[in-house]
């Protein structure tokens, strides 16, 4: 058990990769707070954590609200005793041609994927700085490694996550807090179902076709499932990564290699 006695917050933990990582952390001994817009789905994940013998807390939460981030951290420390791990995962996508992307759409992507992620990390690092230990894992994407014609706002937001990860890592290194990022590829989650629908509408394809087209070009021969990111997420939360900070790791079947 690599995370025995640790307390984690997983934002967007009610679905997809957040849920898989929350369950993976519980398997390694951690208690986990599931913070998500969707309270019912968050509670269902907490029920799964508790069935594994862990403590859990489902919090209805909007990452775009900096005060909600502070309140979430305070409640976690109050009810579970401390905060050791943040899996900073809540995120949304947008498939739009460059010339049709509106200011509101741009702002919404950045409010969730960048501003929310930053202020969540800022809130979480307060107890971590005080206890002089902690691990923050930010969720980027292969979209942060390269541009895509129909994905400009999302790509920019996920590239910014890589930059924020490096700055936070430098700011928090003197306090014994490690900050790293994961960059998943094409993962079969509700997020990609929505992305697939948006691609299909723009490209005149049937729903499901964009997903299959992308899958055909993945060197390891398949798309990803949420569980593919769990071993790396556990490594970055556990003692094996104590000398690792400021890094972004791809988990994407060989699509990008940079
Ligand atoms: N699915 C992919 O192919 C893929 C690839 C690379 C990166 N990512 C990133 O991984 C992360 C998780 O994606 P997923 O595919 O598991 O998605 P998902 O849609 O299955 O889960 C995302 C969760 O985030 C929650 N959420 C959305 N906005 C929120 C907000 N404002 N406040 C709190 N919670 C909010 C949703 O309710 C949902 O439970 C996202 O940051 C996404 O950008 C996904």
Automatic annotation (TrEMBL):
NCBIfam families: PRK07231.1
Lineage of the organism: Bacteria, Bacillati, Actinomycetota, Thermoleophilia, environmental samples
Signal sequence bounds: none
Segments passing through the bilayer: none
GO molecular function: 3-oxoacyl-[acyl-carrier-protein] reductase (NADPH) activity; quinone binding
Alphabetical UniProt keywords: Oxidoreductase
Enzyme Commission code(s) on record: 1.1.1.100
Record bears the keyword Oxidoreductase: yes
Keyword DNA repair on entry: no
Ranges of residues in domain Ketoreductase: 6-185
Biological source species: uncultured Thermoleophilia bacterium
InterPro entries linked to this entry: KR_dom, NAD(P)-bd_dom_sf, SDR_fam
Assigned protein family: Belongs to the short-chain dehydrogenases/reductases (SDR) family.
Single Gene Ontology BP annotation: fatty acid biosynthetic process
Pfam families referenced in this protein's UniProt entry, alphabetically: adh_short
Name of protein: 3-oxoacyl-[acyl-carrier protein] reductase
């Amino acid at each position: 058990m690599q995370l025995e006695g640790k307390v984690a917050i997983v934002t967007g933990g009610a679905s997809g990769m957040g849920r898989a990582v929350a369950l993976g952390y519980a398997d390694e001994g951690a208690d986990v707070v599931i913070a998500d817009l969707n309270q019912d789905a968050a509670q269902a994940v907490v029920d799964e954590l508790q069935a594994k013998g862990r403590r859990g807390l489902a919090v209805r939460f909007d990452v775009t609200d900096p005060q909600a981030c502070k309140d979430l951290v305070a409640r976690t420390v109050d009810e579970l005793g401390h905060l050791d791990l943040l899996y900073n995962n809540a995120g949304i996508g947008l498939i739009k041609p460059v010339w049709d992307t509106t200011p509101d759409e741009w702002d919404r992507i950045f409010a969730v994927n960048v501003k929310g992620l930053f202020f969540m990390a800022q809130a979480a690092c307060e107890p971590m700085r005080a206890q002089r230990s902690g691990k923050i894992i930010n969720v980027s994407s292969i979209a942060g490694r390269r541009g895509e014609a129909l994905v400009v706002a999302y790509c920019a937001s996920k590239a910014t996550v890589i930059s924020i990860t490096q700055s936070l890592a430098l700011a928090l290194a003197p306090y014994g807090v490690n900050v790293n990022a994961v960059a998943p590829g094409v993962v079969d989650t509700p997020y990609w179902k929505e992305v697939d629908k948006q691609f299909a509408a723009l490209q005149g394809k049937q729903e499901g076709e964009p997903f299959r087209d992308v899958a055909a070009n993945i060197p390891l021969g398949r798309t990803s499932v949420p569980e593919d990111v769990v071993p790396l997420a556990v490594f970055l939360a556990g003692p094996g990564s104590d000398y690792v900070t400021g890094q972004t790791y791809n988990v994407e079947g060989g699509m990008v290699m940079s």
